[in-house]
Design a protein that fits this description.
Length: 53
């Protein structure tokens, strides 16, 4: 299974049972996909700022 994080969304590729399982995993932490996307992008910015310092 592959997971691509884009600026305005997330793309999951793979077998249907793999995608369902991955969504169930993230459902525990995030209520909406938009929350997931926001968290991924904010953590990327934090990692970049940490490297610069």
């Amino acid at each position: 299974m592959k997971l691509y994080v884009l600026e305005k969304g997330i793309v999951l590729t793979g077998k249907s049972w793999e995608i369902k399982q991955k969504l169930k995993e993230f459902q525990v932490k995030y209520e909406f996909v938009s929350d997931w996307i926001h968290d991924v992008h904010s953590s990327k910015k934090e990692r970049i700022l940490t490297r610069i310092k």
